[in-house]
Request: fold
Amino acid sequence: MPNFFSQAVFSNILRFLIKAAQDKRVVPYNELENIFGLSHNMAGYYAGMVGEFCLEHDWPLLNSLVVNTTHCKPSGGFDHYEGISEQSWGDCLAECWQKFHMKTSREQQVRNYSGLTQLVRDWDYEGAPASKFN
Reply:
């Protein structure tokens, strides 16, 4: 590994990308730069290292989640991984989201909303500020 490689930074980026996959979202390069204090080139370097890690461990390509904000797609270096995996970028995204997304039961999905309709109906809104639309 090059002397500027930090296993701690790599581990944190890997974990961050797994969380992004769980949330079914992409991560702009500038988000990696800002959160991990990286230059743009270093963010790209670590994205590539994540791709290599994923290939070696037969994981979905988590580096497919890292996109530039201009085109909302990975930068040109991702072409290498599309060629190796023989998958389109969209297929790589779908594979990440399918593997890492936290599946929830219907009960868990509605838990925070259960009883909310009645709670809102019963709410005494007399003390609430008047709406300009009244």
About this structure: The chain has seven helices and two strands.
